[in-house]
Amino acid sequence: MAKMVITCACTGAETTKAQNPALPVTPEEIAEAAYEAWRAGAAILHLHVRDENGKPTQSPAVFKKAIDLIRAKCDIIVEITTGGAVGDTAEERLRPIMELEPEMASLDCGTVNFGNDYIVNTLPVMRKFAEEFKRHRVQPTLECFDLGHVYASQMLINEGLLEPPYHYGLVLNVPGAVPYSADNLEVFKRALPAGAHFTVMGIGRASLPAQYGAIATDGWIRVGFEDNVYYSKGVLAKSNAELVERAVRIAREAQFEIASSDDVRKMFNLKG
Ligand code: ZN
User: Ligand 1 centroid vs 261 CA: distance in angstroms?
Assistant: First the structure.
Protein backbone atom coordinates (compact mmCIF):
# COMPACT_ATOMS: atom_id res chain seq x y z
CA MET A 1 0.00 0.00 0.00
CA ALA A 2 1.16 3.53 -0.71
CA LYS A 3 2.07 5.61 2.31
CA MET A 4 0.33 8.84 3.19
CA VAL A 5 2.50 11.42 4.95
CA ILE A 6 0.52 13.77 7.17
CA THR A 7 1.91 17.11 8.32
CA CYS A 8 0.33 19.07 11.16
CA ALA A 9 0.76 22.86 11.14
CA CYS A 10 -0.45 23.44 14.67
CA THR A 11 0.03 27.18 15.23
CA GLY A 12 1.13 29.30 12.23
CA ALA A 13 1.97 32.98 12.38
CA GLU A 14 -1.42 34.58 11.86
CA THR A 15 -3.98 32.43 13.70
CA THR A 16 -5.16 33.80 17.07
CA LYS A 17 -6.79 32.36 20.19
CA ALA A 18 -9.73 34.65 19.40
CA GLN A 19 -10.30 32.55 16.26
CA ASN A 20 -9.95 29.26 18.17
CA PRO A 21 -9.23 29.20 21.92
CA ALA A 22 -7.58 25.77 21.51
CA LEU A 23 -4.71 27.32 19.47
CA PRO A 24 -1.38 26.23 21.00
CA VAL A 25 0.81 29.31 21.54
CA THR A 26 3.36 28.73 24.32
CA PRO A 27 6.21 26.24 23.80
CA GLU A 28 4.50 23.96 26.34
CA GLU A 29 1.15 24.10 24.50
CA ILE A 30 2.86 23.58 21.15
CA ALA A 31 4.76 20.54 22.45
CA GLU A 32 1.56 19.00 23.79
CA ALA A 33 -0.25 19.67 20.48
CA ALA A 34 2.69 18.15 18.57
CA TYR A 35 2.60 15.06 20.75
CA GLU A 36 -1.16 14.62 20.29
CA ALA A 37 -0.85 15.13 16.53
CA TRP A 38 1.98 12.58 16.34
CA ARG A 39 -0.05 10.06 18.34
CA ALA A 40 -2.96 10.62 15.94
CA GLY A 41 -0.74 9.90 12.92
CA ALA A 42 1.15 13.05 11.88
CA ALA A 43 4.72 12.31 10.76
CA ILE A 44 5.80 15.96 10.43
CA LEU A 45 5.16 19.03 12.58
CA HIS A 46 5.32 22.36 10.72
CA LEU A 47 6.51 24.69 13.45
CA HIS A 48 6.00 28.40 14.09
CA VAL A 49 6.56 29.84 17.57
CA ARG A 50 5.29 32.91 19.40
CA ASP A 51 6.82 35.27 21.95
CA GLU A 52 5.44 35.87 25.46
CA ASN A 53 2.85 38.27 23.98
CA GLY A 54 1.61 35.66 21.52
CA LYS A 55 3.23 37.42 18.55
CA PRO A 56 5.14 35.39 15.91
CA THR A 57 8.91 35.27 16.43
CA GLN A 58 11.85 33.70 14.57
CA SER A 59 13.93 33.65 17.79
CA PRO A 60 16.10 30.50 17.75
CA ALA A 61 15.88 30.38 21.57
CA VAL A 62 12.08 30.07 21.49
CA PHE A 63 12.25 27.47 18.70
CA LYS A 64 14.80 25.53 20.74
CA LYS A 65 12.61 25.58 23.82
CA ALA A 66 9.64 24.22 21.86
CA ILE A 67 11.75 21.58 20.09
CA ASP A 68 13.34 20.37 23.34
CA LEU A 69 9.87 19.96 24.87
CA ILE A 70 8.64 18.12 21.76
CA ARG A 71 11.70 15.83 21.76
CA ALA A 72 11.00 14.87 25.37
CA LYS A 73 7.62 13.51 24.25
CA CYS A 74 7.99 12.03 20.74
CA ASP A 75 10.11 11.72 17.60
CA ILE A 76 7.89 13.71 15.20
CA ILE A 77 9.92 15.39 12.44
CA VAL A 78 10.14 19.14 13.06
CA GLU A 79 9.83 21.31 9.97
CA ILE A 80 10.70 24.87 11.02
CA THR A 81 9.13 27.74 9.09
CA THR A 82 11.43 30.09 7.24
CA GLY A 83 8.40 31.94 5.91
CA GLY A 84 8.09 33.48 9.34
CA ALA A 85 5.49 36.20 9.59
CA VAL A 86 4.59 39.01 7.22
CA GLY A 87 7.28 41.72 7.53
CA ASP A 88 10.16 39.57 8.86
CA THR A 89 13.50 40.14 7.13
CA ALA A 90 15.23 37.29 5.25
CA GLU A 91 18.00 37.22 7.90
CA GLU A 92 15.46 36.82 10.73
CA ARG A 93 13.68 34.08 8.84
CA LEU A 94 16.91 32.10 8.30
CA ARG A 95 18.32 32.30 11.83
CA PRO A 96 16.64 29.19 13.29
CA ILE A 97 17.93 27.13 10.34
CA MET A 98 21.50 28.23 10.83
CA GLU A 99 21.49 27.89 14.62
CA LEU A 100 19.31 24.81 15.14
CA GLU A 101 19.80 22.79 11.92
CA PRO A 102 16.38 21.10 11.96
CA GLU A 103 15.65 18.00 9.87
CA MET A 104 13.25 19.91 7.62
CA ALA A 105 12.18 23.50 7.02
CA SER A 106 9.88 25.35 4.65
CA LEU A 107 11.43 27.37 1.79
CA ASP A 108 9.07 29.84 0.13
CA CYS A 109 9.53 29.87 -3.65
CA GLY A 110 8.33 33.34 -4.58
CA THR A 111 6.46 36.54 -3.92
CA VAL A 112 2.70 36.50 -3.45
CA ASN A 113 -0.32 38.33 -2.07
CA PHE A 114 -1.20 37.18 1.43
CA GLY A 115 -4.62 38.64 2.08
CA ASN A 116 -4.09 42.39 2.36
CA ASP A 117 -0.37 41.80 2.98
CA TYR A 118 2.27 40.21 0.82
CA ILE A 119 5.19 37.79 1.11
CA VAL A 120 8.42 38.78 -0.65
CA ASN A 121 10.93 36.22 -1.86
CA THR A 122 13.20 37.41 -4.64
CA LEU A 123 15.35 34.92 -6.55
CA PRO A 124 18.55 36.16 -4.81
CA VAL A 125 16.89 35.60 -1.40
CA MET A 126 15.72 32.12 -2.45
CA ARG A 127 19.23 31.25 -3.65
CA LYS A 128 20.66 32.34 -0.29
CA PHE A 129 18.08 30.22 1.54
CA ALA A 130 18.77 27.19 -0.66
CA GLU A 131 22.51 27.53 -0.05
CA GLU A 132 22.03 27.65 3.72
CA PHE A 133 19.65 24.68 3.66
CA LYS A 134 22.27 22.70 1.77
CA ARG A 135 25.11 23.80 4.05
CA HIS A 136 23.17 22.80 7.17
CA ARG A 137 21.69 19.61 5.62
CA VAL A 138 18.09 20.72 6.05
CA GLN A 139 15.48 19.10 3.77
CA PRO A 140 13.42 21.89 2.20
CA THR A 141 9.68 21.80 1.78
CA LEU A 142 9.39 24.01 -1.31
CA GLU A 143 6.30 26.08 -0.63
CA CYS A 144 4.55 27.25 -3.79
CA PHE A 145 1.60 29.65 -3.54
CA ASP A 146 1.58 30.33 -7.27
CA LEU A 147 2.38 28.39 -10.43
CA GLY A 148 5.33 30.72 -11.10
CA HIS A 149 6.86 29.53 -7.82
CA VAL A 150 7.13 25.99 -9.17
CA TYR A 151 9.06 27.33 -12.17
CA ALA A 152 11.25 29.48 -9.91
CA SER A 153 12.15 26.35 -7.92
CA GLN A 154 13.09 24.70 -11.22
CA MET A 155 15.58 27.52 -11.80
CA LEU A 156 17.21 26.73 -8.45
CA ILE A 157 17.31 23.05 -9.39
CA ASN A 158 18.97 23.91 -12.71
CA GLU A 159 21.54 25.99 -10.83
CA GLY A 160 22.39 23.03 -8.60
CA LEU A 161 21.04 24.66 -5.43
CA LEU A 162 18.36 22.02 -4.79
CA GLU A 163 18.78 18.28 -5.00
CA PRO A 164 16.34 15.36 -5.09
CA PRO A 165 14.33 13.96 -3.45
CA TYR A 166 12.18 17.09 -3.65
CA HIS A 167 9.30 17.84 -1.31
CA TYR A 168 6.87 20.54 -2.37
CA GLY A 169 4.16 22.23 -0.35
CA LEU A 170 1.37 23.47 -2.59
CA VAL A 171 -0.41 26.23 -0.71
CA LEU A 172 -3.82 26.82 -2.23
CA ASN A 173 -6.61 29.22 -1.32
CA VAL A 174 -4.61 32.00 0.31
CA PRO A 175 -6.74 35.14 -0.28
CA GLY A 176 -5.24 37.02 -3.23
CA ALA A 177 -3.40 33.94 -4.53
CA VAL A 178 -4.54 30.76 -6.32
CA PRO A 179 -7.87 29.29 -5.13
CA TYR A 180 -8.09 25.59 -4.43
CA SER A 181 -9.77 23.52 -7.14
CA ALA A 182 -9.12 20.05 -8.46
CA ASP A 183 -8.10 21.64 -11.78
CA ASN A 184 -5.64 24.04 -10.18
CA LEU A 185 -4.08 21.27 -8.10
CA GLU A 186 -3.69 19.15 -11.23
CA VAL A 187 -1.95 22.01 -13.09
CA PHE A 188 0.52 22.49 -10.21
CA LYS A 189 1.17 18.75 -10.05
CA ARG A 190 1.95 18.56 -13.77
CA ALA A 191 4.51 21.38 -13.41
CA LEU A 192 6.50 19.62 -10.66
CA PRO A 193 9.83 17.93 -11.42
CA ALA A 194 9.52 14.19 -12.12
CA GLY A 195 9.35 12.11 -8.97
CA ALA A 196 8.76 15.05 -6.62
CA HIS A 197 6.71 14.45 -3.49
CA PHE A 198 4.13 17.09 -2.63
CA THR A 199 1.93 18.02 0.29
CA VAL A 200 -1.33 19.85 -0.44
CA MET A 201 -2.28 22.68 1.90
CA GLY A 202 -5.81 23.96 1.49
CA ILE A 203 -6.35 27.18 3.41
CA GLY A 204 -9.60 27.92 5.23
CA ARG A 205 -12.64 26.21 3.80
CA ALA A 206 -10.44 24.52 1.17
CA SER A 207 -8.75 22.38 3.82
CA LEU A 208 -11.04 19.36 3.55
CA PRO A 209 -11.44 19.42 -0.28
CA ALA A 210 -7.63 19.70 -0.53
CA GLN A 211 -7.24 16.56 1.60
CA TYR A 212 -9.41 14.63 -0.84
CA GLY A 213 -7.48 16.30 -3.67
CA ALA A 214 -4.22 15.03 -2.19
CA ILE A 215 -5.63 11.52 -1.96
CA ALA A 216 -6.80 11.67 -5.59
CA THR A 217 -3.43 12.88 -6.94
CA ASP A 218 -1.03 10.79 -4.80
CA GLY A 219 -0.09 13.87 -2.83
CA TRP A 220 0.27 14.15 0.90
CA ILE A 221 -1.93 15.91 3.43
CA ARG A 222 -1.41 18.90 5.72
CA VAL A 223 -3.92 19.94 8.35
CA GLY A 224 -3.81 22.16 11.41
CA PHE A 225 -4.81 25.49 12.87
CA GLU A 226 -2.30 27.42 10.71
CA ASP A 227 -4.45 26.53 7.69
CA ASN A 228 -7.92 26.18 9.16
CA VAL A 229 -9.46 26.36 12.65
CA TYR A 230 -12.80 24.69 11.81
CA TYR A 231 -13.76 21.04 11.86
CA SER A 232 -16.85 21.66 9.74
CA LYS A 233 -18.90 24.68 8.70
CA GLY A 234 -19.32 26.88 11.79
CA VAL A 235 -17.89 24.24 14.15
CA LEU A 236 -14.44 24.96 15.59
CA ALA A 237 -11.98 22.07 15.77
CA LYS A 238 -11.40 20.97 19.37
CA SER A 239 -7.71 20.39 18.72
CA ASN A 240 -5.12 19.92 16.00
CA ALA A 241 -5.24 16.20 16.76
CA GLU A 242 -8.93 16.08 15.88
CA LEU A 243 -8.04 17.33 12.38
CA VAL A 244 -5.20 14.80 12.07
CA GLU A 245 -7.53 11.99 13.17
CA ARG A 246 -9.96 12.79 10.35
CA ALA A 247 -7.12 12.96 7.78
CA VAL A 248 -5.97 9.52 8.95
CA ARG A 249 -9.50 8.13 8.63
CA ILE A 250 -10.07 9.35 5.09
CA ALA A 251 -6.60 8.28 3.94
CA ARG A 252 -7.14 4.80 5.38
CA GLU A 253 -10.55 4.59 3.67
CA ALA A 254 -8.69 5.30 0.42
CA GLN A 255 -6.34 2.38 1.21
CA PHE A 256 -3.28 4.38 2.22
CA GLU A 257 -1.01 3.29 5.02
CA ILE A 258 -0.08 6.14 7.35
CA ALA A 259 3.64 6.96 7.20
CA SER A 260 5.55 7.17 10.47
CA SER A 261 8.17 9.84 11.15
CA ASP A 262 10.88 7.23 10.58
CA ASP A 263 9.33 6.29 7.20
CA VAL A 264 9.74 9.92 6.15
CA ARG A 265 13.30 10.04 7.53
CA LYS A 266 14.17 7.11 5.25
CA MET A 267 12.47 8.67 2.19
CA PHE A 268 14.50 11.87 2.50
CA ASN A 269 17.60 10.50 4.24
CA LEU A 270 17.09 12.95 7.11
CA LYS A 271 19.59 13.40 9.91
CA GLY A 272 17.28 11.82 12.53
ZN1 ZN B 1 3.80 28.10 8.18
Answer: 19
Q: Is 37 a residue whose pLDDT tops 90?
A: yes
Contacts of residue 175, Cβ cutoff 8 Å, sequence gap at least 6: 113, 114, 115
Please give the pLDDT value at position 84.
82
CA distances from 210 to 153, 162, 186, 214 (A): 22, 26, 11, 6
Ligand 1 centroid to Cα of residue 267, in Å, is 22
The CA 255 to ligand 1 mean position distance, Å, reads 29
Amino acid residing at 25: V
Mean pLDDT across the stretch 201-207? 98
Q: What is the pTM of this model?
A: 0.98
Residue 11: give the domain boundaries: 2-268
- In order of 37, 98, 166, 230, 245, the CA distances from 150 in angstroms are 29, 25, 12, 29, 30
CATH assignment of the domain containing 57: 3.20.20.70
